[in-house]
Specification:
The complex is a heterodimer of chains A (273) and B (301).
Chain A (H helix, E strand, L loop, with lengths): L1 H32 L20 H9 L2 H32 L5 H10 L9 H11 L6 H25 L2 H9 L4 H9 L4 H17 L2 H6 L11 H8 L4 H34 L1
Chain B lengths: L2 H6 L2 H30 L2 E2 L7 E2 L3 H9 L1 H34 L4 H13 L2 H12 L5 H9 L15 H26 L3 H9 L4 H12 L1 H17 L2 H6 L11 H11 L3 H26 L10
Antiparallel strand pairs in B: 1-2
The chains are: A mainly alpha (273), B mainly alpha (301).
């Protein structure tokens, strides 16, 4: 009897909280799906009176949001490739090879995880300038890759260490080189860890803001993360179109998350246990 | 020839070869920048003209007469404990209730986690609709129900603004704590929860006296990540308040951006970066040393 009551209470609490949590998202959706001429002006826009997708048409006609989306894809995918290749090599080396000063190196890499990105925007701006990659995608791809490597190395190293050594050892005795072992034995059996690295790196690149803000100037090069800022100026008098922009930016990220969430939750559990 | 020898001998070289690309990226985009801010922090430079070496003058100005700098530090001092504690308590309660029993686990978990994957810039724009005293959600609810205090312009008052932003930050990141707690609870031995049930402990008691104490490593990880997150806070402030009103919601990253890229005081901005660097690394090392926090739990042991 009592446990049933508490369970009911728990559910009521959770559902109420979930509704509160959804309010900002509802505001976004309702304003975006209202016709521009019937824009809700009270309750922050939480009242849907008419329905229309006109705002979305406006966005696709008047902005280059598709271009921005492609920019983000280019930046994220390239840095993911760099991170996966180089971090897995380094992680394999940390896990299986002898290097002098290995622990100090590893500690240095880890400490980069505590580093707030904003402390580095000034120097990276200057570095990009002297490398001639300021206001270009490479100017984001390289730093993003560098920031992503420490986390990737931790994840991959612990995964490599958990792989049974016997297979690699017998391959070595058969005279297979380390490069081949890495490429054809270790990497293929590490896909769960690599997937986590890919998802994490992709999401971080996709959402990164401050570095993109200070290094990218040309409108045609701007990634999706700068879009809300860019078009909130352009759509100052058209909140509907602005919120439609926000939805277009948000939906892909949410879809990716829903798609991978089972996977991510399981991975977190693995790492915790 | 001994096999083992052939394995270890060239390994030093191969090991280095495997690490080289990472080291290259790491040196150019992380190590060099860190050294660079320490160096540039001792100069007066507008980014274009010749720089002037002034040793510690930037730091003296920062600590002795820069009001905005102290406001930023004060805000970080509010921000870290308030967001971390609220997120942990709320995240734990939600995670516990989700794990114990509810028929809607997946959908609820998704709803709570979605804010963490939305760009903070967007979050800022959305919450302006809630805080807006003219037709915003809170104020209109206030007018409709008679709760006049809700009609207050929270973001426009220097005394309340930073707390209003903190609320938004809790909304955004609670789901992250929840997810980590769910993982923690799932990894507890099942017998513990069953035993507690058999002993007839109420859910509240079970949460407080059995589950919470067993998740110490999770709490510590969340505190560490929370402190690091506080030091990174930029886009939410940038879009919600731009650091205003009258710098009341300024955080160090925003101040770096402002000094470096809007006012072109590169040297001064570097000095602020150095302070932020020292605070962040210092706090992290303190926690790792004294609280024995681990980043991704067992990885670093």
């Amino acid at each position: 009897m009592r446990t049933q009551n508490t369970a009911l209470l728990a559910n009521v609490f959770l559902i109420t909280l979930a509704f509160i949590w959804l309010i900002p998202l509802a505001i976004m959706a309702i304003t975006a799906f209202s016709p521009p001429e019937y824009r809700p002006t009270t309750y922050g826009g939480l009242q849907l009176t008419h329905f229309s997708i006109k705002n979305f048409q406006i966005v696709f006609e008047e902005t280059s949001i598709v271009r921005n989306f492609i920019n983000s894809l280019i930046i994220a995918c390239t840095s993911v490739v760099l991170v996966v290749i180089f971090s897995s090599m380094a992680a394999y080396s940390f896990a299986r090879m002898q290097i002098k000063g290995k622990n100090i190196l590893f500690f240095l890499l880890i400490s980069a995880l505590m580093l707030p990105v904003p402390t580095l925007i000034l120097p990276i701006f200057q570095i990009n300038k002297s490398l001639g990659i300021l206001d270009s995608h490479l100017g984001l791809i390289f730093p993003y890759a560098a920031f992503g490597m420490p986390f990737a190395i931790i994840i991959l190293r612990s995964f490599f260490e958990s792989l049974p050594k016997e297979l690699e050892e017998s391959a070595i005795i058969d005279g297979v080189s380390h490069y081949r072992i890495f490429l054809f034995i270790v990497l293929p059996s590490s896909w769960p860890a690599i997937a986590v690295v890919i998802i994490f790196q992709f999401m971080t690149c996709f959402n990164e803001f401050i570095l993109a803000l200070v290094t990218i100037d040309s409108p045609s090069l701007k990634p999706l993360s700068l879009v809300p800022l860019v078009y909130s100026g352009q759509f100052l008098s058209q909140p509907g179109a602005m919120f439609a922009t926000l939805i277009i930016v948000t939906v892909p990220v949410i879809l990716v998350f829903v798609f991978v969430q089972r996977f991510m939750v399981n991975m977190t559990i693995k790492n915790n246990s | 020839m001994n096999r083992a020898d052939s394995l270890t001998q060239p390994l030093q070289f191969r090991g280095l070869l495997f690490i080289t690309p990472v080291l290259l990226f790491f040196s150019v985009f992380i190590v060099y920048p860190v050294l660079y801010i320490f160096y540039l922090g001792m100069f007066d430079w507008d980014g274009i003209n010749d720089s002037k070496f002034i040793l510690f003058k930037n730091y003296i100005k920062l600590f002795s007469s820069d009001r905005v700098f102290w406001i930023s530090l004060r805000n970080a001092a509010y921000w870290a404990p308030l967001t971390i504690i609220s997120q942990m308590v709320l995240g734990f309660i939600v995670a516990f209730l989700l794990e114990i029993r509810t028929p809607f686990v997946t959908i609820l978990r998704t709803i709570f986690f979605i804010p963490t994957i939305i760009s903070p810039i967007i979050v800022g724009i959305l919450w302006q609709q809630i805080y807006n005293p003219f037709g915003g959600l809170l104020s209109d609810i206030g007018y409709a129900t008679g709760f006049d205090s809700l009609t207050y312009a929270f973001l426009a008052d220097t005394r309340t603004a930073v707390f209003a932003v903190i609320v938004v930050n809790v909304w955004q990141w609670m789901g992250f704590s929840m997810l980590i707690y769910i993982a923690g609870i799932k990894s507890l031995p099942k017998s513990v929860l069953d035993m507690a049930k058999i002993d007839g402990l109420s859910m509240a008691k079970m949460a407080m006296y059995v589950v919470w104490p067993m998740l110490k490593h999770v709490h510590l990880t969340l505190i560490l990540l929370g402190v690091i997150g506080t030091m990174q806070t930029f886009p939410l402030i940038y879009s919600l308040t731009s650091g205003g009103p009258n710098h009341a919601t300024e955080m160090l990253p925003n101040y770096i951006f402002q000094q470096g890229f809007l006012l072109h005081n590169m040297g001064y901005a570097s000095a602020i970066s150095v302070v932020l660097f020292i605070i962040s690394i210092g706090l992290s090392i303190l926690q790792i040393k004294f609280l024995k926090v681990n980043f991704i739990n067992k990885e670093l042991k």
